[in-house]
Write a structure and sequence with these properties.
This protein has 182 residues and is an all-alpha fold. It contains 7 helices and no strands. Helix 1 crosses helix 2 and helix 6 packs antiparallel against helix 7. The N terminus is likely disordered.
C-alpha cells in the first residue's frame, strides 16, 4: 500500500511539473502572438511588454522563439529594423535571440550574420544545453573565424577584429570567474 501511495504521489508530482512546463510554453506563445500587428498603432504597450518579457526570459524562451522564427505575420511597426519591408513576427523572434547571443553585433559595426531564419532551428538543436554565456562565446568565436577567413570582411580586420577579440576575452574571463565561484 505504501508503495502505491508513493507511486501516486510521484505521478502527481511529474504531472504537475508537466502542467507547469506546458503552461509556461503556452504563456510564452501568447507573448509571441502579442508581437503581431493588431492595428493598435506604432508602439502598442502590450506588444512592447511581450517583447520585453520574452527577452527577459532569456534562453527559456528560445525554443518558442525558434519555433516561431519563420512566422510571416506582420509584427508591430515598432520592431522595424534596417529594412524597407515591415517586420514579421518571425524576424522579431529571431531578433530577440540575436540581441542576446550576438552581443558583438551591437558595437556599431556590421559583422557577419551568425543566426538566420534558415539556420536558427539547427543551431538551437545543437546548442540548447548551453548557457547564454556559452552561446555568446560560440557566436563571437564564429564571427572571429569568419572575419579572419572571408575576404568580404577585410575592412573589419583592422578595427573590428580587435574589438571582437576583446569582447571574447571579457566573456571568457566572466565565465572563468563564475566557474570558480561555484
Amino acid at each position: 500500500m505504501r508503495n502505491h501511495i508513493f507511486s501516486l504521489a510521484l505521478l502527481v508530482g511529474i504531472a504537475s511539473g508537466c502542467v507547469d512546463t506546458l503552461a509556461e510554453t503556452n504563456d510564452l506563445q501568447t507573448l509571441v502572438d502579442r508581437l503581431a500587428d493588431a492595428g493598435k498603432g506604432y508602439r502598442p504597450p502590450d506588444a512592447v511588454k511581450a517583447h520585453a518579457k520574452l527577452k527577459e526570459a532569456g534562453t527559456n524562451a528560445f525554443p518558442i522563439l525558434v519555433r516561431n522564427s519563420r512566422d510571416m505575420r506582420p509584427a508591430c511597426p515598432c520592431f522595424q529594423k534596417d529594412t524597407s519591408d515591415g517586420p514579421t513576427v518571425g524576424e522579431t523572434c529571431l531578433d530577440i535571440i540575436s540581441m542576446q547571443v550576438e552581443r558583438y553585433s551591437y558595437r556599431g559595426k556590421v559583422y557577419p550574420e551568425y543566426l538566420t531564419a534558415g539556420n536558427v532551428a539547427k543551431w538551437w538543436e545543437k546548442n540548447s544545453g548551453r548557457s547564454l554565456q556559452q552561446l555568446q562565446i560560440g557566436a563571437i568565436e564564429w564571427a572571429i573565424a569568419e572575419v579572419e577567413s572571408n575576404n568580404d570582411y577585410q575592412t573589419l580586420r583592422k578595427d573590428g577584429l580587435p574589438e571582437l577579440k576583446m569582447c571574447l576575452a571579457e566573456l571568457k574571463s566572466q565565465q572563468s570567474e563564475s566557474t570558480t565561484k561555484k
